Amino acid sequence: MQVTITESAQAKLKELLDGQDEENLRFRVFVQGGGCSGFRYGFTFDDTIVEDQDWLFEAGSVPCVVDQLSASYLSEAVVDFEDSPFNSAFVVKNPRAVSTCGCGESFAV
Fold first, then answer.
1. Is the pLDDT of residue 99 over 80?
2. 3-108 — its CATH code?
3. Burial (CB count <10 Å: 0-12, 13-18, 19+), residue 24
4. pLDDT band at residue 22, thresholds of 50, 70 and 90?
5. Half-sphere exposure of 88 toward its Cβ, with a 13 Å CA cutoff?
6. How far apart are CA 90 and CA 80, in angstroms?
7. Where are the domains of the chain?
């Protein structure tokens, strides 16, 4: 299982984490049902870890976590941060997705 967090995403995550009061926060990437294509990506900062169900890894100096179910959909995915004058967001480039919607936030496998 591998998820890549790009350097631009790492830089933005570090900036966001530096503004938090809690020290044990990790960047959680997950997949949940919904969206117009069936599944959608989610991102949050989380200090809760389920030892036998979460995959922990470091991206640069940023601690990250993916739950076991989401890992099966995110294997080989790349999480990037795109910053433009009109929209700034974390985006996922997922080779397992067979289709995506126009907004880029949901996908089907």
1. no
2. 2.60.300.12
3. exposed
4. confident
5. 7
6. 6
7. 3-108
